[in-house]
Amino acid sequence: MKITGLDVEFAALPALVPVWYGQVNAEQWQTAATAVRDAGGRLVALWAGKAIEDIAISQGGTRATAIFVAYVTPDGLFWLALPLTSHDGRAGYPDLSAAFPCVSRMQRAAAELSGVHAEGARDTRPWFNHGAWAADHFPLLQDPQALPEPVPGVLIDYPFVRVEGDGAHEIAVGPVHAGIIEPGHFRFSVVGEKILRLEERLGYTHKGIEQRMTQMVPLQAHRLAGRVSGDSTVAYAWGYCMALESACGTRIPPRAAWLRALMLECERVANHLNDLGALGNDVAFAFALAQFSRLREDWLRACKAAFGHRLMMDSIVPGGVQRDIDPAGRDQLRARCHVLAPDVRKLFDVFESHAGLQDRFLITGRVRSALAAQLGMTGLAGRASSQSRDLRCDHPFTPYDKLRVVMARHVRGDVGARASVRFQEVFESIRLIERILNEMPEGEVRSEVMLPEQPTRGVGWVEGWRGEIMVALELAGAEQGHRIERCHLHDPSWQNWPVLEHAVMKDIVADFPLINKSFNLSYSGQDL
Q: Are the C-beta atoms of residues 266 and 348 closer than 8 Å to each other?
């Protein structure tokens, strides 16, 4: 398999979805970006690390590492590696932000964590480092078994972009908010109530998850993956386990695959119910919050009865699932579907007919399809702006290849469109859950995972409720103790946080909470 115009041999990885891996040089690195963009493909993730080939060895004061990128084309996912070597403490690679604007923050994160720099990039401001470590300290280049004592860096006033002119002023919101949400700073430039510009600063709770991954046993790291973002524990755990199973050449039992999909759709329903209630509440329609909160609570209780945990945490394990679905819980979940669908339908009709709610939803926070495509908008929010992409439809694997998912979509790209997509996905997920419960094959629910003797890599790629989650995993061989060399976990919020800055332009400050909730992006998922 090849990328058009790129003379590189790609090796297919054993995975449920079509995935290819190849090494490139600097010229090919740029050629690939242009070719993928021109062919309508997209960039999923960029990260840095030490590749499992001997291209990344630190010796004699020389820092050697690699920069990685994952692209998606209609043929599947392409994982490219560009080896980098530096003798002066800096390793550089060609900037990709001209082809894919969404990569800018990923490049800034790689610079702070791994000491690699995008040459020619316009934005090189710090992203993760708020002064927690020195500027010449790169966390992911440290020996995970002998980490040095952290030395705080110098606190620097973050250089927000200023908007000047008559009547223009700034409003600073956060990073501490009046609630239990995670910290994020939002700097508004406004005239009166109209927003001229929004700039975000995140990374206040950097947790060191990717460093911690390299300290964990591969067969146990799924538990940490499932805690990257609590509302997506199923998607992240499945993504990690899929990557591990890909690296180890493990086939899971068919019933286990169906149970994983069942849990993923249950997670999707729970989050959409939560968001629909919150969207109503943000326009002073407390009735919606009360009703959707009631439905979500009943749904989570059914999930606990079926899987033993309300959020299904630790239910997906390497080789399959932790336990089979409880028969009584299965019946409770099926009964809950029969009740939930008509109740949500009634609430959908209420939303559509409520003039005050529609007045706040329509045209607010609009992202037109051309801008969405340019910025790489993805997932639920992307589908509300004509970006018709869903891994369950585009690259279906068991059981989605048999279920034939109907993709939810909208063209208007505003708050109302994102709410509409949520409603559509709730109805579709209920249909999928009922089919899975009725058609799921019998059999074992877990296979043994044997770690390989030689270094290897694998990819997990799952359509979570927010969008596609990708996990890139590199394992050392038996001689190195089967350790995790690198595990990069990518959240779709990396793509969509920058879009939010554009979505609020020309709206009023009072509508920001509503627009923000209509995206409901993850702080934790991109603050690893």
A: no
| Residue 184, SS3 per DSSP | coil
* 33-68 pLDDT per residue, tens: 999 999 999 999 999 987 666 433 444 333 458 999
Average pLDDT, rounded, for the chain: 93
CA angle 263, 266, 272 (to 5 degrees): 140
Rg, Å, the chain Cα set: 23
Instruction: Quote the crossing angle between the two packed helices 512-519 and 254-282, to the nearest 10°.
Output: 170
Single pTM value for the model: 0.95
| Ordered DSSP codes for 186-253 | EEEEEETTEEEEEEEE--TT---HHHHHTTS-TTTTHHHHTTSSGGGHHHHHHHHHHHHHHHHTPPPP
**Which residues sit opposite 500 in a β-bridge?**
none
Contact, 475 vs 457, CB < 8 A?
A: yes
Please state, in angstroms and rounded to a whole number, the distance separating the CA atoms of residues 517 and 467.
Answer: 15
Report whether 315 contacts 321 (CB < 8 A): yes
Q: Residue 461, SS3?
A: strand
Mutual angle of helices 512-519 and 415-439, in 10-degree steps: 30
Check pLDDT > 80 for residue 311.
yes
Assign 254 a pLDDT band (cuts: 50, 70, 90): very high
CB 486 within 8 A of CB 473: yes
Task: Place 329 in a pLDDT band, splitting at 50, 70 and 90.
Answer: very high
Instruction: Give the mean pLDDT of 153-167.
Output: 89
